[in-house]
Amino acid sequence: MKFNDFVLGVLVLIGAAAILVSARNFSPIPGQAYGAETMPNAIGIVAAGLGIFMMAKSALMGFQGRAVALADWAKSPMAVVGVAMALALIGVYIVFSERVGFVPIAFLILLVFMLTLRTRIIVAVPVAIFATILVQQTFGRLLLVPLPRNDFLSFLW
Amino acid sequence: MDILAQAAGLVFQPYVLLVIFASACFGLFVGAIPGLTATMATALLVPITFFMDPVPAIAAIVTATAMAIFAGDIPGALLRMPGTPASAAYVEDAYLMTQDGRGDEALGAVLVFSAIGGIFGTIVLVTTAPALAEIALKFSSFEYFWLVLLGLSCAIFVSPSSVTRGMIALLIGLFAATIGIDNPAGQPRYTFGNVELLAGVQFIPAMIGLFAVSEVLRSIVYSKERPKIDRSGKHTVFKRQWTNIRRYPIQMLRGSATGTAIGALPGAGADIAAWISYAVSKQFSRQKEKFGRGHVEGLVEAGASNNGAVSGAWIPALVFGIPGDSITAIVIGVLYVKGMNPGPTVFINDPQLIYAVFMVFFLANIIMLPLGWVAIKGASTLLSIPNRVLMPVILLFCIVGSFAINNSVFGVLLMLIFGVLGFIMEENDIPIAPAILGLVLGPMLEQNFITSMIKADGSFLAFFERPIAAGLGIFTIVVWSIPIILYLRRRWAGSEASPKEDLPQG
């Protein structure tokens, strides 16, 4: 989704307003004029100025470009499914990795993502197995990262 | 000469050389994986160094660090996924060179000029360390405030997109840096009751998300053809570098010197150094318009600066025992364990050991050339793998790299959020790199500003009262003024837009 300069300016201004309002919840260091609110206030003020500048400049230049335009790729179902699948698979890792263990979830992520991108299954399965074991051995054993384990495949550790 | 001979005797032993070789390979491996840092490589080596004598122990860490920082440029140039925030300064140029079929030249430039910068920094370390360290220690919060502000300004002005879009990115990064409890007042900000957010947004998962995950998503939607690497068998990695050395000698020396000087400041480091050097290179270049579009000049200067800063960080560490960055902080611990207490006395009590350490610095930067060449040739095979196979594997590395920072899936969640954010930013031509710099330098900016204001009792004039601070402050204001003056001049001359706005998107 692409925004023109005016809409981007509006979004920046809204963000600035949100930061400035939220900064009122923070207070200075006791006995000082500055503290936790200083940085958010500074960011909010600069962002507000930037938003207004972008809106004014866009207005002066005749609001070039459509306010909101859908990118060309969004018309391709395969691209949309690919992006959605990539994000969903990261979500699957976040939710299920502790319960299922690293090895099965990593294999699943690789296999499903490769098949979504139309990799042939005869290539996807061996690559998924090899990459899963490579990552598990490298990070889990060599670099001692405590990847989530499961009892069934504990021999890999 | 006796001391030098003793030092050489300590270094040129088969065992020490083997340690250097093994840790070089380890550093290359760790650095080339997005998410794994030079600091992590150092931390992982610490338990192993317990079983070593002082010289091989330090050799292992020095070599692994230098290699890891160079290796961070490999995924940057090949896949547009920089390994470190410092590499992010010139990732666009390196990647576009790769897309243009000049990947070998880009990586060769980064390799050769990293080694040159590292060797330059080491020469400075050997010859003028105590004097430089004295100057570095004169930097107070006022000077650091201006230095950080200068680094942040450079990030905006070198961005290939417009200045306004560069500023949006920077503000996003600065805002993300405000999250958490780590602020001068110690109040939780924007944590929404989440305990993990109290620690703030860690820049490694954020960087993986912004650069790597967004690049995975872009590769899906744009089905980009993979760039080609020269496979003719010719040694193109080094071939063009002699020409680059002859063409850009000033850039090479200026980058090395800037990097070493900034690296010597405790807490500043390679990130600010690379950005400032890239901006300086662009400002003084005769081909400004080529920056951000696959031009080697910025790689020469910022690449040298990057590794110069790594060597420079050792100056306060060895002379005063003050860590310049997280790596030297770990090393100081190792030095104490080995009985080589860093500080002025180490030069008097154990001169042969300190000279042996200096020799290791030279060796580490020299061995970088052949091993880096092998790594570049090996990594280049990545480009022959189709996206539909490579991207899922990269996504898995991203997930594990983000997880490994805190051994928590919260890092993966951060990566996901920043991945989506990075994708949306790129769709709207908002550059990613300034956001990373904002995230990294935001806490330093806040800390130094608040500290300075408290010290000055609220007087802004105090930022100009010390000579170095005044110089840096005036320079920063000049840097801000140039685009405004140019913009106004063009407007008066009848031009439609500012010079930056006229540039096509990178």
TrEMBL record, chain A:
Protein name (Swiss-Prot/TrEMBL): Tripartite tricarboxylate transporter TctB family protein
Keywords: Membrane, Transmembrane, Transmembrane helix
Keyword presence, Transmembrane: yes
InterPro entries: DUF1468
The organism's place on the tree of life at top rank: Bacteria
One family name in Pfam for this protein: TctB
Domain DUF1468, chain residue ranges per copy: 10-148
Transmembrane segments: 39-56, 77-96, 102-135
Lineage of the species this protein comes from: Bacteria, Pseudomonadati, Pseudomonadota, Alphaproteobacteria, Hyphomicrobiales
TrEMBL record, chain B:
All residue ranges annotated as the DUF112 domain in the record: 17-437
Cross-referenced InterPro entries: DUF112_TM (IPR002823)
Protein's UniProt keywords contain Zinc-finger: no
Keyword annotations: Membrane, Transmembrane, Transmembrane helix
Domain of life: Bacteria
TM region positions: 12-32, 44-71, 106-132, 144-161, 167-185, 197-217, 313-337, 353-373, 393-424, 436-456, 468-488
Protein name: TctA family transporter
Organism field: Afifella marina DSM 2698
